[in-house]
């Protein structure tokens, strides 16, 4: 496994946030970028319509003049929140996202060796300062006053995610410690990646618009040995976009690793980056997190429950519902070692 095709002997955990990670199939992970969630509120009682373009230009000018950040217009997305005349005073009037991709200042100086922790620490300090300087600022657009709220998404912070799974697995069911089958404390092993273009994970030699388990397995094997894998249409993404999206354009991937160390490295390297394909200008700003639902372990418990229902008969209607739902869940979870199974992953 190598972080770069130019240095195949280099271990993954030595890759700095400022470096690109080459995957397979022409895919790569871009260097670290900053993503911020923006929310705009009214600061005056006016109900005049919001000029999105003017608001966008005002923010871009602020970033350039006050923070010395040159952000392309395509990396700032702001949209009005429905009909402003029907909004309450405390409701937001617009929301969106900001991406800052040019982080050249993080690169080490010539002749100075730095490790991941050093560069990551410098990036986190800078991110905190940017959020502090942007959050709560007042915007005056031709007499209309607005207030900006800014936050960094938690799935872009590896340290925060690590603390969350350590706390989650340290205590469960009150204060009782959770153990795995080998007797030691249970640790997570599955990552969830959503919002990646389906066509990038399709079989390149055939005309298909569906993600391939084999291609997906090859891509994520860069991070370590995989125990189980599942890929499905990312229907959740459409719920966050006004008007929805066409099912199948984006995919959601579950990857269960054999080793906890590979799980950590994969999450660390995927966190706060974007995916790009060679020859394409598109950057896939996916979301990555760890699996809190134990999706692969949960499906292993379905079969015994179905067997109990068969013995009890149809009189037990509450368990009969589980029997109906079980095949649907089971069909979505596919082992990475068995690509012949054809689970129904797409809506017609």
TrEMBL record:
Signal peptide: none annotated. It holds the Pfam family RBD_AKAP-17A. InterPro entries: AK17A/B. Residues 308-320 have a biased composition (Basic and acidic residues). Residues 308-348 are annotated as: Disordered. This is A-kinase anchor protein 17A. It comes from Acorus calamus.
């Amino acid at each position: 496994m190598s972080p770069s095709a130019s240095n195949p002997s280099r271990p993954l955990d030595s890759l700095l946030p400022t470096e690109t990670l080459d995957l397979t199939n022409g895919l790569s992970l871009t260097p670290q970028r900053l993503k911020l969630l923006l929310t705009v509120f009214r600061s005056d009682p006016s109900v005049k319509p919001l000029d999105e373009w003017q608001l966008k230009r005002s923010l871009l000018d602020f970033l350039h003049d006050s923070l010395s950040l040159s952000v392309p217009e395509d990396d700032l997305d702001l949209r009005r929140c429905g009909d402003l005349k029907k909004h309450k005073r405390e409701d937001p009037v617009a929301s969106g996202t900001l991406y800052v991709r040019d982080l050249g200042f993080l690169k080490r100086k010539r002749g100075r060796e730095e490790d991941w922790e050093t560069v990551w620490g410098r990036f986190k300090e800078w991110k905190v300062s940017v959020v502090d300087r942007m959050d709560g600022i007042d915007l005056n657009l031709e007499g209309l006053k607005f207030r900006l709220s800014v936050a960094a998404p938690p799935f872009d912070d590896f340290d925060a995610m690590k603390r969350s799974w350590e706390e989650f697995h340290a205590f469960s069911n009150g204060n009782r410690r959770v153990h795995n089958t080998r007797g030691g404390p249970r640790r997570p092993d599955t990552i969830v990646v959503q919002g990646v273009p389906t066509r990038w994970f399709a079989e390149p030699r055939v005309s298909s618009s569906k993600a391939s388990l084999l291609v997906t397995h090859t891509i994520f094997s860069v991070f370590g040995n995989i125990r189980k894998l599942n890929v499905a249409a990312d229907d959740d993404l459409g719920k966050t976009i006004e008007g929805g999206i066409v099912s199948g354009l984006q995919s959601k991937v579950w990857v269960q690793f054999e080793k906890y160390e590979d799980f950590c490295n994969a999450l660390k390297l995927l966190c706060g980056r974007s995916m790009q394909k060679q020859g394409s200008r598109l950057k896939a700003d996916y979301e990555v997190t760890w699996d809190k639902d134990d999706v692969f372990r949960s499906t292993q418990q379905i079969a015994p429950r179905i067997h109990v229902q068969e013995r009890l008969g149809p009189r037990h209607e509450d368990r009969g519902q589980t029997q109906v739902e079980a095949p649907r869940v089971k069909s979505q979870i596919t082992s990475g070692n068995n690509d012949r199974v054809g689970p129904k992953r797409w809506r017609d």
